[in-house]
Each structure stands twice: as C-alpha cells, then as structure tokens.
Amino acid sequence: MKQLLKIVASAVLLLLTCGGAAAQPILRLPSVIGDHMVLQENTNAKIWGWAEPENEIQIIPSWSQDTIRTKSTGDTKWLTSIQTPPASDKAHTLTIKTRRRTIIVKDILVGQVWLCGGQSNMNYSAAQGITDMQEELKKPMNPSIRLFTVTRNSSPWYQEDCEGEWQVCDAQSALWFSAVGYFFGKDIAEKLNQPVGLINASWGGSPIETWIPKAELEKQPELKKCWNQNRKSKGTYRYSPGSMYNAMIHPITGFPMAGIIWYQGEANMGHTSYADAFSLLIDSWRLKFGRELPFYFVQIAPYAKYKNPGSAAAIREQQARVAALKEKTGMVVVSDLVENVNDIHPRRKQKVGRRLANWALAETYGKPQGKYRHASFASMKIKGQKAVIEFNDAEGGIHSDDKPVETLEICDASGVFHPARAIIDDKDGSLIVWNDAVRKPVAVRYMFSNGGIGNLKDTSGLPVAPFRTDSPFIVADRAAAELAQEMALTDIEISGYDYKRGKLKKGDKLFLNRNYPINIVPERFREFDMLIREATPGELTQPCSVIPKTDGMLYVIARKNERTLEDLYGWREVKDSEITYSTAKGDVSLKIFCKKAKAGKKVELPRTKDFCGIIPIAPTIKYEDE
Prior knowledge:
The structure is a single chain. The chain is α+β, with helices and mostly antiparallel strands. It has four domains: about 40-80 and about 90-100, no CATH class; about 110-365, SGNH hydrolase (Rossmann fold), CATH 3.40.50; about 375-480; about 485-625, no CATH class. The chain is built from twelve helices and 36 strands. The strands form seven sheets. Strands 2, 4, 5, 7, 8, 9, 10, 11, 12, 13 and 14 form an eleven-stranded mixed beta sheet that branches.
C-alpha cells in the first residue's frame, strides 16, 4: 500500500511539474537581435523569433509611432519586418511583447552592418599576436562600433540560431575580435560618420566548401569531385560541405547588412576549381541573404611553406578571376604587407582592413578615398627579344623604388622560365621584360610563386597584382568578356508589315504559315523577342527597318547558304549559334548573324529570296506594323 501511495504521489508531482513547465510563457529572440546591436539604416529589416503558438506579437520601435503586429505559427515561429530610420548614434529601443511576456532590446544604433568571414587571417586578433591591433587597444575606441562574434560551430543541418552577443567596442571586447574586421569597420565609421556593426563569422583552417550550402554544392559535379579528392578529413562535421554555413551563416541570413568582407583560401591549396567554388559561395550567399550584397575580399598573402610549388599562386590567380568576372566584388593585394614569408599569418592587419574599406567606400558608398584598385596585367606584346607588358588601373605609371624589379620570369616556347630583367617605360608606363638567354619570348610571370614578394607599385603605393601571361584562364576570360560585351544587346524598334512578334524558344514556330517547331535554341538567346512572317519561297522578303535604342549588336536568324551569304554581306556569323526546326523531311539548321549598330541610327535589314528569310531577334522588340 505504501509503495502504491509513493507511486501516486510521484505521478501527481510529475503532472504538477509538467503543468508548470507548460504554463511558462515563451518569447525568445535570436542572438543576433539583442542589446547594443546595429541595424542597417533605411531598410526593411526582418525581426523574428519564437513565441507561444498562435499568439499575437507586438513589435514597438522607439523611432516610430507604429506598432507592428504579427502572429506566431503552430511551431512557435514568428517573423515580421520594420522600417529602420537613417543612420544615427542615438540609442533606440525595440520592444517585443506578447500577452504574457515582454522583451526590451536596448541601446540599438542604426548605421552600417558588415559580415566578416573566412579563415584564420580574418579571425586573428590582438590576443593572437596581431601587432597593430595590440597597439590599437591602447587608444580610445569608438563606442559606435559594435562587435558580434559568431561562436565557432558546425552542423550537418541548417540551424535556426547561433551563439554570440553584441558588444560595445572597447579594449576588452576588441581583444579577441577580428583585427581585419575591426580596422575595416573603424575606417567605415570614421569616413561615413556613422555607427558600424561588425559580425565576425570565421574559422581558422576552414576550406571554402564548408561555407557553401551543401545543396548548392551538390548541383556542381566538378566541385563535388574536387572536394572528394582534396578534403582534409572524413567523418567530422567540421570539414563537411556546408557544415559551417549551416551553423554560423544560415542563422543570420535574415539580418539586414550592407555587405561582406572575406579572407580565405589558404585551406584550399591544390584545388583547381577554387574560382568556381568561390563564385558559387558568393552567388549562394547573395541568394540566401536576399540581396546582391557587395563582396570584397583579400588575395592570400605570400607564404613559402606550402608543399606544392606554385599552389598559392594558382589560388591567387583564381581569386583574381573572381574579382574580374563577378559583379560587385573587389580584391585587395597584400603582398607588400608580409614581413616573414614563413609565417602564414602576417602580423599587421591595419592596411588590410583599410584597403577593404577603400573598396567599400568607393564602390558601395560612392565616397572614394583615393586609389583603391590595384594595377593588374592587361596585355603583352613581343618586340624582338623583349616582352612589353601593359597594365590596367595604373594611372600615373608604376615603379620599383629605383631598384631592380623582383620575382619576374620569362620563357620561350620550351616553357622553361628564367629570371628576367626589366625597365619601366616612363612614356606609357609599360614594363619591358627580357633575359639575354631567351631569344624568342612567349610568356612572362610576376610574383607567380608561393612565397615570392615583388616590388612593383603604382604611384599611390599599392602593389601591382601578381600575374602570368601564360595563364590558361586568359583566353577563356577574354572570350567570356567579349561575349558579355556582345550580349549587352540593344533593344530595338522595328517598322515593317505582315510580321508578328514571337519568342525564340523551344516548341515555338518560325513561320506564320508553317507548323515547324523549334527544337534547338542557344541558351544565351533563349526567350529573345523575334519577328516572324509567312514563308514565301522564291519571293523577296518584305522590307524591314530597325532603330536600336542603344549602341550594341543587331541579330538576325537566317539559313547559311550561298544566296544568304551574299545577302548578309557585312553581317558576321555568331559562334555556336545553331538553331534548328523540325519538318516532315527532317531538321533544318539556321544560324544567327550579327552587326554593330549605333543608337538611333536606322538600319535596313537584308532581304532574301531564301525560304527561311531574315528573322530579327533582340531581348525586347517594339514593333510597328506599317
């Protein structure tokens, strides 16, 4: 009997305990929304959290007369947005409350928020021996700079929250904070005279694949293959694709930001697809954050102890490719800031942060603070036994402090590189390179090694970016640039008669009076507008006038044969532009032809007796039937 009473008493106690726990009201915010935070100015900022299911939540910002109301879902989540005011160092509050609980977020500033990501060179702080950051801690610090460090964590699944808290910048809170991030934020705060919030989410030794959402990486067979060949460890989440993104980036993707700075690459030595992986990271983060955020990054520094010769140079080259081809990106070179090529962590970070800030100030805020783009390789010409190198972004020329140019190499068709000599042509700023043993030069390399530090600078003191003229990417990148320029197509106005506007896509037809469906369309021309007409064998096609809206390329579809080649005199065939349509007798192949045109200048399209005629195409066609 006593035993039975004990069991009953325990059960009652358990019920009372559980009932009390169930009655406890829920209201919680993610860690990134908290006291001392900085909100991005003039934006529709997401505010989210967790509350009791099916409850109304009121959000009351001190800077507004409005009360925003939302409701939690059955799984306790809630989400809304608030309009933030212009930047100010006035402290605000944000009150979030339900019927049973209230949270007041205090000391909120409004200004610029930047995410600082990467591996150890982004993560290193004064506490880890960064010299100029140690010196900075002795000075008065700006309390309008706020710091948030995401606690290192990894996960195989998306996490809803991360560990961390906002802190007012002072000698204590900045001791362990990213030195590069701090110096970047300090310059932004000073030049804009605004509060700055910095979120540090970095992890030493982390490969780039760990920061890319796994689902996006899975779509890229070559990147998956590269990961499997080069991954550092198996069976741990730390080095699993997407694991750091899941735990350290995904939880803050709802938080509004101005942009991202990045310093990573050392952990991807030997990865031939680094540029593709880096581009995928940028694209996927922009997608997840819901904005085409500016992305400024650091080219990895010289370090002599990498195992494979040239592996660091290859990563630097791929980083430069991303900067050249990706919109709203910028790269800073730091080779001149390295004091010891046997230390993978250069000890001075102030100029690194300042160079990143200069990119942001110029490109994001329209407030350039002097030159911020590094001089980079543009072209090479061979003149006798010498190679003449020309540079982009080298206003005022380049120099080597009146010393011999270092880390230059030149080769002939044998592919064997020799140390090279050079002089700088004061007239045009070109670099003239030679070696007496190389009689017929074919390629030049500058600073293309793991630990080599060159001494070429522009007149502002910025180092010239490393390069090699024999890069396998140069031809491909130039072709891509030409295609990008070519595809900056003009919209057109067309006048004619008996045409009908259609779309260039699979399944549509090219003639009004024939049911011949299109089955192949070049991807870059898919969904273009086109004007179609009746096919009239043996009759000259009707006249058609085109007026381009801007300078660009005009495009037409035509069959390639002896007759049309004469009719299309002055038009150039576009490479890889085959279009086919199906008939009862088989498929018919057509080509796309192009011609440069000036804005507002009328162009009469060719006329032909060929059955397929001349079909104008453009991204957008405004057609008037005469």
